[in-house]
Amino acid sequence: MSIDPGRVSDPPAAPVPAPASARQPVKVTPREYRRAVRLQARRVRRVIRHIEPWSVLKISLIFYVCLWVIVMLAGVMLWSIAVGSGTVDDTESFIEELFALQEFKFNANQIFRGFAVGGLVLVVAGTFFNVLLCVLFNLISDLTGGMRVTVIEEETARQRPRTRPPRFRWPNWIARK
């Protein structure tokens, strides 16, 4: 077969794609991935116009009862430490000498009973006060239009990798050949 020098040659053939097994995704270390990922969230302004007094009552009651239990346990622990170290006896003898008394003793049962009843009264009073403030807030917010708050929506807060160029994929009709 002879080659004609005056004739235009055929265009060069397109490069043959590599087989699918040769194309592998780029491996990224976890550290590189964390650097490439950034948190995206949307800031939204909301208006609080009404707070349910029933929910305030429940939350306040649970909070103040937990606080009362913590204070009672701390009081019992401090009293037992004071009795164990002799501080209570020293204080009783000091008061006897100071006021020239025949005898002076602390009645622990009476002290803690008063402490417990006083704490329960404070629990009820604090809960009532919080509910009263909630109702007052609702009345004032009807006049003023509410309280504006800026929040970040958690539904849209998601990690999104920084924009990378998309990986090239050969069309299915080429990969089959």
Low-confidence stretches: none
Give the total of beta strands.
2
Query: Can you tell me the overall shape?
Result: elongated
How much beta, percentage-wise? 15-25%
Largest sheet: 2 strands, antiparallel
- Ends apart, CA distance between termini: 30 Å
Structural class: alpha+beta
Contiguous helical run count: 5
Q: What topology, given as strand order, has the largest sheet? A: 1-2
Radius of gyration: 39 Å
Question: What is the average per-residue confidence, as pLDDT, rounded to a whole number?
Answer: 82
The percentage helix is 40-55%
Order of helices and strands: HEHHHEH
Keywords:
177 residues, 15% strand
Structure description:
It is a single chain. With 177 residues, the protein is of the alpha+beta class. The protein contains 5 helices and 2 strands; from the N terminus they run H-E-H-H-H-E-H. The protein has a two-stranded antiparallel sheet with strand order 1-2. Helix 2 runs antiparallel to helix 4. It is elongated, with a radius of gyration of 39 Å. The mean pLDDT is 82.
